[in-house]
Amino acid sequence: MRRRTLPAAAALAATAALLLTACGSADDKAGDNDKIAGAEQGSEKPKESPSPSGAPAEDKPDGVDVSLPKDMNLVFDWDKPEDKNEAAAMEDAANYLRAIYRGVDKRSTKDAALTTYATGGGLKYAEVQINEWIKGGWTATGTRRHYDATTRSTPNGTSVEVAFCADTGKFYGKEVKTGKVLKTEPSLKDFDYYKIVMVKFPTGEGIWQASKVFVETEAAKCR
């Protein structure tokens, strides 16, 4: 049983349409022009509306809860962009990841945080990841670090690509029934490179949702 922040390779293969794992895959071509892959993806209305983007759960009494257990630590070691939309999209990309691991902890794909910060392909991707953790009988523990983030907007400002590295070397699977932490030796498998297309919810509520996810696994550039 291997430790991964995203579940085993078989699960990732099942979402081939959502995951691009090679350096020369289509998502890297997006940098050659103004188009962002998946930016045309529509946005669905979330079941609950959060307060301003990216605020910690304790600052959002009227919104959705994106809090995680104390032993599940997601660190976002990145600088906030000057552009207002890109900053909001980046913070809600972080909330999207929090929502995924909240689903892992709650053993559910129906948590309000996920339906708030994900739509379309982003929602499907998250559901597959959470379901694989549930199927394996695992939750997560430790620290998952995100860094070297960049943002890029479409000309109309309704879509933002948030790209970043993730280091999962200190983030482990844990058996739900026994509490056993599943550790492995550090390796290149601990490093992934993400590109998440965030789309602006059209009602002006300040919500950005993950509409598509691209992942390069074993990303040497993140090591």
Keywords for this entry:
223 residues, six-stranded mixed beta sheet, 25% helix, globular
Whole-angstrom Rg: 16 Å
Shape assignment: globular
Largest sheet: 6 strands, mixed
Q: Count up the helices.
A: 5
- Can you count the beta strands? 6
Mean pLDDT: 79
Helix content, binned percent: 10-25%
Helix-strand sequence = HHEHHHEEEEE
Unreliably modeled segments: 1-34, 40-62
Distance between the termini: 23 Å
Helix/strand-derived category reads: alpha+beta
Instruction: Give the amount of beta strand, in percent.
Output: 25-35%
If you had to describe this structure to a student in words, what would you say it looks like?
The protein is of the alpha+beta class and 223 residues long. The chain contains five helices and six strands. The protein has helices at 9-13, 26-29, 84-106, 112-117, 120-136; strands at residues 72-77, 138-153, 159-175, 181-182, 191-200, 208-217. Strands 1, 2, 3, 4, 5 and 6 form a six-stranded mixed beta sheet that branches. Strand 3 (159-175) and strand 4 form a beta hairpin. Helix 3 packs parallel to helix 5. The model is unreliable at 1-34 and 40-62 (pLDDT under 50).
